[in-house]
Amino acid sequence: MHNIPTPHNEAKAGEIAKTVLMPGDPLRAKFIADNYLEDVVCFNKVRNMFGYTGTYQGKKVSVMGGGMGMPSIGIYSYELYHFYDVDNIIRIGSAGGIAENIQLRDIVIGMGASTNSSFANQYRLPGTYAPIADFELLRKAVEAADKMNIKTVVGNILSSDTFYDDNEEAMKLWSKMNVLAVEMEAAALYMNAARAGKKALCILTISDHVFTGASLSAEDRQNTFRDMMEIALEIA
C-alpha cells in the first residue's frame, strides 16, 4: 500500500472496505451513502469522484463513483484492487437495451462483456479475450434478486468506447448476437479483476432502448435504480 494515496484517490490504508459498489455517477454514490449506509465516512473527493465507507446491515461496505468509459473505471478499479486491497467491485449502472426481449426497468446482469475497445491489447494475448463476471458474485446476485422478487436477465452485454457511434448499423449487429444491452465500463472492470486475481460483477438497469426510443423519466430512474442498488448491497 505504499502507492497510496494516489493522484485519483486520497483514501488512506484501511479506509476502504473489501467490497466496493461502483456506480458511474459519483452523485449516485452519495445517494447510496446517504440512504443506505450507517456511520458513513467520505474517503475521497479528488476530482469530485466521491467515495464513502459505512455499514449496511452490519457489513462494512464502500461505494465510489467510477466515471464514464473504460479509461475512467480502468483507473479507479485498478487502484482499488492493487493499492487498496479491495477484493470485490460491483458496478451498478444504467444501460441501453438492444435485445428485443429487453424492456425498460429490467435488471440486466452482465455474465460476459463484449467490447469494441482495445483495452485488452495491453496484455499482449495471442487471441481474443472474453471478459466475464465472477460466477460466485453472479450467482449470489441472482439468488438475492429472486428472494427480493426482482426480475433479472443474465447474459452478454456490450461495453462500448463510443456513445455517439458513426456506424449506424453497429447496435443491430451486436443485437443479432443476442447481446442484451450496451454500456461503457464492464469489460475493463472484468479484465482488471481477472488480471489482479480479484472479483467483479456488473448489474445494470435498463433506462432506455436503443431501437424503440423508449426511456425512463428522471423520477422512474430514481425509483427503479433502487432495486439494482439493493441487490448489490445484499451481496456486498
From TrEMBL:
UniProt-listed Gene3D superfamilies: Nucleoside phosphorylase domain
Residues the entry annotates as binding phosphate: G24, R28, R47, R91, I92, G93, S94
GO BP: purine nucleoside metabolic process; uridine catabolic process
InterPro entries noted in UniProt: DeoD-type, Nucleoside_phosphorylase_CS, Nucleoside_phosphorylase_d, Nucleoside_phosphorylase_sf
GO MF terms held by the record: purine-nucleoside phosphorylase activity; uridine phosphorylase activity
Site (Important for catalytic activity): R221
Domain Nucleoside phosphorylase span(s) in chain numbering: 19-230
Keyword Glycosyltransferase: yes
Keywords: Glycosyltransferase, Transferase
Enzyme Commission code(s) on record: 2.4.2.1
GO cellular component terms, semicolon-separated: cytosol
Reactions accelerated catalytically: a purine D-ribonucleoside + phosphate = a purine nucleobase + alpha-D-ribose 1-phosphate; a purine 2'-deoxy-D-ribonucleoside + phosphate = a purine nucleobase + 2-deoxy-alpha-D-ribose 1-phosphate; uridine + phosphate = alpha-D-ribose 1-phosphate + uracil
Active-site residues, record numbering mapped to chain: D208 (proton donor)
Keyword Zinc: no
Chain residues that bind a purine D-ribonucleoside: H8, E183, M184, E185, S207, D208
Domain of life: Bacteria
Pfam name, any one: PNP_UDP_1
Purpose of the protein: Catalyzes the reversible phosphorolytic breakdown of the N-glycosidic bond in the beta-(deoxy)ribonucleoside molecules, with the formation of the corresponding free purine bases and pentose-1-phosphate.
UniProt subunit comment: Homohexamer; trimer of homodimers.
Family membership: Belongs to the PNP/UDP phosphorylase family.
Name the record gives this protein: Purine nucleoside phosphorylase DeoD-type
